Amino acid sequence: MARPCPVGGGPATMRLHPHRSRVSRMAGLRFSVRSLGMVRFAISPIWETIAAIRLLHHPGRGLLGEWTAEQLPVLDQLPWLRALVPPSGHMADVLTPTPPRARNSLRAELEVVAQSGPEVFVADLRHVLANRHCLDRSLIERALADPVSALIEITAEVERAHRMLIEPLWPRLRGVAEADIAHRVSRVGDRGALAMLADLHPGVVPTDAGLTVSTSCPEDTELSDGDGLVLVPCAFAWPEVLLMRQTAGAPTLAYAPRGIAGLWTDRQRARAGLAELIGRTRAQILTLLELPMTTGQLAGSLGIAAPSVSPQVAVLRDNGLVTSTRRGRVIVHERTGRGDGLIGGV
């Protein structure tokens, strides 16, 4: 059975659950050269939704603390997900299927959840029931008594959770994920696949044989030549990594992408002084360019139309704060040293 395993942070990463350090061990994902060549990225709305539910069990903490505190009342409206996604330990496998494509729609992912076989779902429920952190055992037992009806209700609740929690943020979440993928693909070209994997998370360490992952589910996994590995940039996975090891198909590793601080902190809202100096939208663009982004990625992160972004970028470029370089069919914008200095000085 696949198990979504939370991965603890390293010395520089805040832990939501310090007690995990007593049980965390190193699991191995061993892969051949062919499997390494099949590592791919995917953007998944359902992974963001389920990771957000997990994070809501720990409101007001760390980088996303303001958002979790504001959204905490939503958790009481989602009884199935509150039970199936406990604060710690294993959660329901069926809720986080391996994304089949690079960009996935919620509807397609919900269809995969709805089509989960009853025997797989029942085994999954028993696994969650065994988790000592499960918050509503009576609801899990109800699902065991009628798994077909329960799965219908759960699928509808996931859709509702996405609408309440993720949909308002989705353009920005997707933009940050796309920018992170572009950065890591560039790293592969510059330094190779292992260098790209090296800075996913302090608990994920490349080795000559594959990856070692600090996790509470320490079983090693040998990836067959047809498996590969799916990497999912997922803002709400912060500050951990979620590891799903499928018994058939590709294991999936969800990690927090670079630049998520810009979604909720002053980097996104832009420092008031900088906004007064160069304008609110240009200040937001300059802060978002902590890592290179295309015009479309900037538009997605800001939640505005791409044609509205281009003239703002042009002003920043004319003043030496950003550069723009064509890479294939897209133009990538990067902050210059002068831009870095302006950000640091405000």
From TrEMBL:
One Pfam family matching this protein: DUF5937
Keyword Aminoacyl-tRNA synthetase applies: no
Gene Ontology molecular function: DNA binding; DNA-binding transcription factor activity
Highest taxon listed in the record's lineage: Bacteria
HTH crp-type domain boundaries: 285-334
UniProt keyword list: DNA-binding, Transcription, Transcription regulation
InterPro entries found in the cross-reference section: ArsR-like_HTH (IPR011991), DUF5937 (IPR045981), HTH_ArsR_DNA-bd_dom (IPR001845), HTH_CRP (IPR012318), Metal_resp_trans_reg (IPR051011), WH-like_DNA-bd_sf (IPR036388), WH_DNA-bd_sf (IPR036390)
Record flagged with keyword Transcription: yes
PANTHER family: ARSENICAL RESISTANCE OPERON REPRESSOR ARSR-RELATED, HTH-TYPE TRANSCRIPTIONAL REGULATOR KMTR
Protein name as catalogued: Transcriptional regulator
